Amino acid sequence: MKYIDEFRDGERARVLAAAIAREARADRRYNLMEFCGGHTHAISRYGLADLLPPAIRMIHGPGCPVCVLPIGRIDSAIELSRRPGLVLCTYADTMRVPASGGLSLLQAKARGGDIRMVYSSADALRIAREHPDRDVVFFAIGFETTTPPTAVVVKQAAAERLANFSVFCNHVLTPAAITAILESKEVREFGTVPLDGFIGPAHVSTVIGSRPYEYFAEEYRRPVVIAGFEPLDVMQAILMLVRQLNEGRAEVENEFTRAVTRDGNGKAQALVADVFELRRSFEWRGLGEVAYSALRIRERYAPFDAEARYGIVYRPVPDHKACECGAILRGVKTPAQCKVFGTACTPDHPLGSCMVSAEGACAAHYTYGRFKGAAVVAAPAAPA
Amino acid sequence: MSFRGRAIPASEAMRADYVRPIDFRHGRVDMTHGGGGRAMAQLIDELFVRAFDNEWLRQANDQAAFRVPGGRMVMATDSHVVSPLFFPGGDIGCLSVHGTINDVAMAGAVPLNLAAGFILEEGFPLADLKRIVESMAAAAMEAGVPVVTGDTKVVEQGKGDGVFITTTGVGVVPAGVEISGDRARPGDRILVSGTLGDHGVAIMSLRENLEFETTIRSDTAALHRLVAAMVAAVPGIRCLRDPTRGGLATTLNEFARQSRCGMVIAEDRIPVAAGVRAACEFLGLDPLYVANEGKLVAIAPPEDADALLAVMRAHPQGRDAAMVGEVIADPHHFVQMDTSFGGRRVVDWLTGEQLPRIC
Questions:
Q1: Which of B189, B281, B352 lies at the smallest CB-CB distance from A4?
Q2: Which of A160, A345, A346, B56 could form a disulfide with A340 if both were Cys (CB 3.0 to 4.6 A apart)?
């Protein structure tokens, strides 16, 4: 497949792996956080860890949209879905996130809620147009990648004066989350999470550009390399980070030049600025309340804001006691260090959100990484 | 009372026998079609018996009695609830015939006869029903496996999804053939009969909210003739299964669990059509988990594997067959894959349904 296979080429991976092994110094550690779930997924799926020297340690970051969604927000969505006649639309992964009382949107659907999985915000809008007698709410989640499409449907609904459509906005911001990690006690005070550099988001950066990361490089002296979601992108970014660290540099570099510019997508940014404004604070699973880390719908679009329309009041709910998602999302623990990993908490019965999405650190490790220690035999040679 | 003394005019006699034919153009299924009365009998005669036409159905009994050759018998049943009912490359009708024939054939058996149960939803267009039944009949005819008995029920509107079809098949295993999912041994080779994921992607291309244009067609097909050729050449085949729901990954995990061993496959040997790869890429799906309806997975002893592959490739249904991996000893019963990238990963059981990722 053109433009895909080039970035999954095993030969090139071996060349890059050799370069990384050559340049990574044995006398130091390289603790690199890949912020995005997309990178986490690529690392697990392609077995990248096997190709890296022991000096390099990858830490999974919180950039997985459903992982950082707190229980209280899912509870509110389930409550909405119980309103008679209401149709709740959401992206796929969100359906399985555990909420209070052993529920999830999937289970709320089985109990009679009209909850529909959509592939795009435009589908939710279409459902609203087709069912003028039903209230349709789009449960919007995600980072800067999914925010512009939500802005588009709010504006369209306003232009069409669609009275039965609204958005339950839960969009969050990447730079705020990175700041929260860098400012966390584990990183700043205790030093329990050594963090030497970041692999910056791919799709998020196509929207916001590389400029917002310049502050982290400068202020916190941590190099950032923005990378695509293909395995070779990740390998290349690791090599670039190793070089920066070896040379004592802390700069923003862009590996994903085929899609990311310094200023990002101006049109998308303007759309978002028109429809949304910053929330003073927003709760993240794992990170807790983070100031100015999420968006809400502006006053002028209030009729399309489900929070205003249905008087949704946010009630925080603590995570399951044994669940270590919080520590895992901050890079303090690895999935295998959680007591319930692979026992009480599995992808089929997730206790925590990291076990839900294929991008979540726990689900990725469970699905792709459990074989470590199993017998290894080479596959047979291809017949002539 | 009698009609003695009065001659019945010819025209009236004709009227007494006259039954208005079912309107297969504009008619719809209604509750009388499942009520056990005249309307049901008429639907059975004019549609099912006519389409499936064979000596057993013509006998109009509630069961079919037929002779079977000696040996071990195989029986399999499969319910079909596919949506949409019509898709590129097939429909629920031929799918329901192929699916059960394949389940019977995967024991190495020669399929003999089928039974079909229909659950129809009130209001379902008779034109669509006719199209489905005729597609079933054509598939059964092509396969040489007749539908010898059946049943029809009608449920109220809103209590079904158009039409559900359950088919049951019986077959007989040739002497000396012993195929079962628990017979894989370390060292055995894993073969697939062709490209994976075609059916699932063809179905998905029509799903609501997801319509995309593709030339991919469902691979729905009856595989018993391919199986017969394989069994004739290599009677020692250990395992056979058609990787339907859950795809190759699920079938291999089932074999690994049943046989208490592990499996290693090589990503770059697994045949996947370019269009299927592309569709999976943008839908965020993994072709290893996507459904097939006309492919099989075989596990054979290493010394027979090359001969088996040659037989498969010589058959039109196995042109793209490939040897994709090997059975290993593994107390965890993991299925693993050497990625074309150079790493190795677990190919796990599917969690719930395959859902697309957000980012």
A1: B281
A2: A345
The beta-carbon neighbor of B265 closest among A117, A359, A379 is A379
CATH architecture label of B189-346: Alpha-Beta Complex (3.90)
Name the residue with tokens 């190495």: B108
pLDDT in tens, A111-153: 999 999 998 999 999 999 999 999 999 999 999 999 999 999 9
Per residue in A62-105, pLDDT (tens digit) is: 888 888 999 999 999 999 999 999 999 998 788 888 899 889 99
The domain A71-172+294-309 having CATH identifier 3.40.50.10680: the answer here is no
Alpha-carbon span A310 to B178, nearest angstrom: 64
Q: Which residue of A69, A366, A377 is the best one to mutate when testing the B interface, meaning the one whose CB has the most B CBs within 10 A?
A: A377
Q: Does domain A30-63+182-254 have CATH number 3.40.50.11750?
A: yes
A379, B340: Cβ pair inside 8 Å?
A: no
Domain ranges of chain B: 31-173, 189-346
Residue B173, Cα to own-chain centre: how many angstroms? 19
| Integer Cα distance of A188 and B186 in angstroms | 52
Chain B residues interacting with chain A (CB cutoff of 8 angstroms): 186, 189, 209-210, 262, 264-266, 269, 274, 277-278, 281, 302, 305-306, 309, 323, 325-326, 328-332, 334, 336, 338-346, 348, 351-352, 355-359
Predicted pLDDT at B221: 97
Mean pLDDT of B319-335: 96
Residues carrying CATH 3.40.50.11750, chain A: 30-63+182-254
- For helices A361-369 and A37-45, the axis angle rounded to 10 degrees is 10
Question: Does the structure show a pLDDT above 70 at B297?
Answer: yes
B31-173 maps to CATH 3.30.1330.10:
yes
Q: Closest approach of chain B CAs to the CA of A184, in angstroms?
A: 26
pTM, entire model: 0.85
> pLDDT band for position A383 (50/70/90)?
very low
Query: In what side-by-side order are the strands of the sheet with B163-173?
Result: B72-80, B163-173, B110-121, B147-155
Determine how many CB atoms are found less than 10 A away from the CB of residue B356.
15
Nearest residue on chain A to B274, alpha-carbon basis: A1
Could you report the predicted ipTM of this complex, rounded to two decimals? Answer: 0.79
Q: CB neighbours (10 Å) of residue A114?
A: 18
